[in-house]
Amino acid sequence: MKKQRRKLSIITQDLRIALKRETTDIIGIGDLLIEAKDHLKHGKWLPWLKKEFSLSDRSARNYMQAAKFAAKSETVSDLGNLSPSALYAISSDSGFYTPEIIKVILQEAKKNRVGKDRAWDIALSLMPEEDEKKPPTSKELQQEQEAEAAAKDKEEAEAILDGPPPDLPPAAPIVPVDLALAQFNNAIKALGELRTKSVNRFTGTTHNVDELREVAHFLFAVASAAVKSGHSFDAGEVQLMPEPKSVKQ
Asked: Which DSSP string corresponds to 154-222?
């Protein structure tokens, strides 16, 4: 028997229902994983995930974070118009999606389906305007630091000639080198020098859009953590790039 051809409007409605069910199923899976984890002793969680479901730790954490995020909402149905990737993004602890941004995303989700790309665009539209003043280049910073050092050396030399011999300073303690931090600082310095270039020069990158966004999320999380820890950057340290409002075409 030939299958009856249905109207597109009916198919569209069924798809909306199925996609909402996909998101609510993710939240339900996260609730079950949270419940199951309470039964497992330390060190047994990952082997259990692999044996029973061939599930990675990262996937499990995504499910559980989504469930914890949903628990804070008034109703799970409020999240039904979020795609799974959008739900994972706003429920993550990266710090990129602030409560104010999430509120706007959920408001739109009440009317339209919101995917990860749309959530990203909403977040960027709510970012503070970037200061139009160009940041100093690395060469300008170096010249400024050298001038300050020269002035300080001159002042110290004049003080030595005018007064008694100074006491020798104690030997500086040996500070262990943080290789990861050094690598991070070099990367930020390189990115800072590229900011004056047109973004069109970099569209041929071998990295895909998701990889670039993950790096942006990471940098924003580092900046947020630095602010929370009370760290202040002086002229002698590498500066983090401000989060861009939009991408040049």
From this structure: HHHHHHHHHSSPPPPPPPPPPPPP-HHHHHHHHHHHHHHHHTTS-GGGGTT-SS-HHHHHHHHHHHHHH
Rg (the chain; Cα; Å): 26
- Residue 218 inside a domain? The answer is yes
Burial 95-131 (b: 16+ CB within 10 A, else e): bbbeeebbeebbeebeeebbbbebbbebbeeebeeee
Record the tokens describing residue 91, joined without a space: 């429920």
Structure letter (DSSP) for residue 231:
-
Evaluate whether residue 109 is within a structural domain: yes
Burial class (CB in 10 A: 0-12, 13-18, 19+), 30: buried
The answer to whether residues 226 and 111 belong to one domain is yes
What's the pTM value of the predicted model, to 2 decimals? Answer: 0.51
* Paired tokens of 16: 């909306």
DSSP-assigned letter for residue 79: G
Cα separation of 230 and 181, whole Å? 18
- The pLDDT, as a whole number, for residue 62 is 92
Residue with tokens 């799970």: 76
Of the three residues 72, 95, 123, the one that is the final residue of a domain is 72
**Low-confidence residues of the chain: pLDDT under 70:** 1, 74-77, 129-142, 156-168, 172, 175, 230-249
Question: How far is 108 from 102, CA to CA, in rounded Å?
Answer: 10
> What pLDDT sits at residue 192?
80
